[in-house]
Design the sequence.
């Protein structure tokens, strides 16, 4: 609690300072013209629907350049942001590292090499590379899924999530292993260890452990293929390493039944998937969160070394022997035997925002902490808050308890949010930030929205929702939000925040999608009205 108070204190102090010249734009100012009747009618019609009887709406639309407020409803109230909070994490990391930064993951030797034999250890140093080769494409960009295909990080055994297209979960370790072999090392008469001390692996946020090293983004991808009713389903998983083995008791249920299967750890290095998948369904994807990323990466690296022709007598299994690490994290450059560079940070942020990768956004906060010499990921929240304040979101309007928006204590304010969006455009990374947002009707999580309307390709926005169910037929959307940029019919660039709190639900996905459809009706009307 004392630490959290200090974080808020830092942010308050920084906000008290004058904004930099780069942020010296006109503040938001009230509109001098009435809301066009067609837009006002659309807003009234959507908000009057019975499902929103107990909900609170906010609408704020402003000109990105002048700051003129065109639409305003509950602009000062606090709302639960959901995944729109990822925008703040993205801006903070882009500010601290720059859009062109590449994360460099090296391998060092700690002993001498004679006639191809290393008398010492190999050390793989985690750099915080988000995908570590998983999403690499030949043109230098990063692969991601677009709706209706969701990212593997969202896989829960239901239809929709799929594997990253054309991906190799072991690409990072395989690239490094080949370089070790090319450096003349044929045998390691020592051990292999992962240096994961860039920051302390963190488990305090809702989306699982965040680590400086990640093979397959620290997931096991488990795919179930139904067979005949009552028969055992076919199970496959990746990456296949000695670290984890998957066993299955999944059965095939009648056609049309809902998928109901899950993955749980049932022993050291053992995952059991159980439940049912319906006959006739396509491949269904489930993920298991790796609880020990450094040990997982070490196993994968040792096995990759062996495939590359490097003999490693040390056991590939077990824990990561951190006791073998040198005291200092500074290694002699002459001892480097391999190096992998990531895609530019702009590409990494694009993946995280396009697919709304929760642990990816949390990683950004940890990387911000590391940039400032802090190993505690929580320290990154203070710098996130500081950057938010610099961009017009002071501490009494913006509350970040994690980097992904998965903590239901997170809060944002529409005025601060739209001011933030305007000021981001003035930053050196502004174009990269905007390009990272899902594009309505085109890509990312918004690829299926707005189809057949003039809004396609004209709205760049981050959705965010928080949904919980008390029973299978009774739930609540604590938040359903769309925020971002609109290229209006006239050519004006607008910033907008369309936020709703507290919508009762009776069905999981269909109603959530219907809410987004309602919000899009308003945003489409905004796009045409100005």
Sequence:
């Amino acid at each position: 609690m004392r630490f959290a108070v200090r974080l808020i204190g830092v942010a308050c102090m920084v906000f008290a300072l004058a904004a930099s010249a780069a942020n010296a734009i006109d503040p938001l100012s009230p509109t001098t013209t009435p809301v066009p009747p067609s837009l006002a009618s659309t807003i009234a019609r959507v908000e009057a629907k019975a499902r929103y009887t107990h909900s609170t709406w906010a609408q704020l639309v402003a000109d990105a350049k002048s700051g003129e407020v065109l639409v305003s409803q509950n602009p000062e109230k606090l709302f639960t942001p959901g995944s729109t909070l990822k925008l703040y994490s993205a801006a903070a990391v882009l500010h601290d590292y720059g859009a062109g930064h590449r994360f460099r993951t090296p391998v060092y030797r700690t002993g001498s090499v004679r006639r191809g034999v290393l008398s010492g250890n190999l050390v793989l140093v985690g750099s915080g590379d988000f995908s570590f080769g998983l999403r690499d494409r030949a043109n230098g960009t990063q692969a991601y899924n677009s709706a209706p295909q969701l990212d593997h990080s969202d896989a829960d055994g239901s239809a929709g999530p799929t594997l990253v297209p054309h991906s190799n979960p072991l690409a990072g370790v395989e690239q490094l292993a080949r370089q070790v072999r090319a450096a003349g090392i044929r045998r390691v008469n020592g051990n292999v260890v992962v240096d994961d001390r860039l920051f302390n692996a963190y488990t305090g946020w809702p989306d699982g452990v965040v680590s400086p090293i990640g093979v397959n983004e620290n997931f096991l991808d488990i795919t179930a293929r139904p067979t005949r009713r009552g028969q055992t389903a076919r199970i496959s998983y990746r990456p296949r390493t000695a670290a984890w083995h998957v066993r299955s008791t999944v059965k095939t249920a009648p056609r049309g039944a809902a998928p109901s299967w899950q993955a749980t750890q049932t022993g050291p290095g053992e995952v059991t998937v159980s439940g049912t998948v319906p006959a006739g369904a396509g491949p269904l994807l489930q993920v298991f969160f790796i609880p020990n990323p450094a040990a997982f990466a070490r196993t994968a690296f040792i096995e990759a070394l062996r495939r590359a022709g490097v003999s490693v007598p040390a056991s590939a299994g077990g824990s990561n022997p951190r006791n073998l690490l040198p005291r200092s994290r500074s290694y002699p450059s002459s001892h480097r035997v391999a190096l992998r560079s990531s895609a530019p940070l702009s590409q990494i942020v694009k993946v995280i925002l396009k697919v709304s990768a929760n642990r990816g956004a949390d990683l950004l906060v940890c990387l911000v902490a590391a940039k400032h010499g802090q190993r505690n990921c929580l320290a990154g929240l203070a710098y996130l808050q500081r950057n938010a304040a610099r961009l017009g979101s002071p501490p009494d309007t913006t509350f970040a308890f994690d980097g992904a928006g998965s903590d239901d204590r997170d809060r944002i304010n529409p005025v601060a949010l739209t001011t933030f969006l305007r000021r981001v455009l003035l930053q050196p990374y502004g174009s990269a930030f905007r390009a990272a947002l899902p594009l309505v009707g085109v890509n990312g999580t918004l690829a299926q929205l707005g189809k057949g309307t003039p809004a396609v390709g004209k709205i760049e926005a981050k959705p965010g929702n928080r949904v919980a169910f008390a029973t299978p037929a009774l739930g609540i959307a604590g938040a359903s939000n769309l925020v971002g940029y609109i290229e209006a019919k006239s050519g004006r660039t607008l910033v907008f925040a369309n936020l709703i709190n507290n919508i009762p639900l009776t069905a999981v996905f269909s109603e959530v999608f219907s809410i987004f459809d309602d919000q899009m009706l308003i945003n489409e009307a905004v796009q045409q009205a100005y």
